[in-house]
Model the fold of this input.
Amino acid sequence: MNFDEQCYLRDPYKVDFSARVREIEPAGDGLWAVFLDGTFFYPESGGQPDDRGTLGGKPVAGVSESEKGVRHLVGGELQAGSEVEGHIDWTRRFDHMQQHSGQHVLSRAFLEGFTLKTVSFHLGEEICTIDLEGNTPDEARLNAAEARANEIIFKNIPVSSRIVGADELGSSGALRSRLPEGVDRARIVEIGGFDASTCCGTHVRATGEIGSIKILGAERVRGNTRVEFVCGGRAARDYAAKHKVVSAVAALFTTDWREIPRVVGKLGEEGRELRRKNEELGRELAGFRAAGLSRATASAGGFDVVKRAFDEGDASSLRETVTKIREMGGKIVLFGVARPNPALIFACSSGIPLNVGEILKSCAAIIGARGGGGKDFAQGGGGDGSRIAEALDAAEARIKEALG
Done:
């Protein structure tokens, strides 16, 4: 790692600079890989995305680390040996600085308060995550870690960095153990008196610039706990979006936003009570309908056959009616619905030697329906509703043949 080339480590606030192009090579798709003698563009690494901007007035589409140094993917050819002006997208850069510095604070808060070590970090386009090693913290611990992190932010503690040799880190210290094999120098980012860790990301000057930290949630992922969070501008936008939704809901119910949990809870209870009453009324209605529809249309083997073809109807509501009719005893029920969703519902009372499931399967083929069931109840749906009467007639014929 060439710390001299990586100027962004010394001054992450510098967004306009001049540099010499030391090498250039084609990268395909109209892009060129450009290497500078020094750069303020941050390359994607350590869970932090890269910077964007322009080099020599041409757009920078990506920045990464390579054996040759920091590799800038530029949308146009530059001249090797020439002096170029670089400009970095400050909005993107500062957002990443807030998120990454906030991650250091939050990770230390979990380690300090609950000995939960951060094993990975990801800075996404909308949210950030850290994976914690150990048991999943409950809501109280999440809230406590968030409160501690924001306490550190509000103290506006200075954030600094320095390059040290491996010998300065100690041969067995926690920081030394994080160095990859063969690395003899490291950059330490320190939040005065609170945290120190090896890191090559871009950071704010003091914790106050982080703004605030908000934990969005936590879940178990591959044996660790993944904590989602946002900092600074992202936290402000998250609050604004949620405030807008909460205010709209409060206005809908003409109440104060603080009353929303109580109002929604009450609505939930009322909804459950209405569903219960609706189910009772549905069963009662099914009983009335069954009484009116139970008249036999034919007989087979001494049992009443109740065959009905409905031009329109709802199969789910007819199920309860069919059940009521079969419970009257001595009934074979053949119901069909043509529209809007073709359906067949067959049933028979207990003790009748039939398998209506098998009968339905064979007759459902007439209309192209699919379905099945047991010996005393079966249902199918789909197909050509105009042939419902034909399917019911075929079922009646099979029943008469089976019962003699």
Q: What stands out?
A: The chain is about 35% helix and 30% strand. The chain has three domains: 7-88, 94-234, 294-403. The chain has a mean pLDDT of 90.
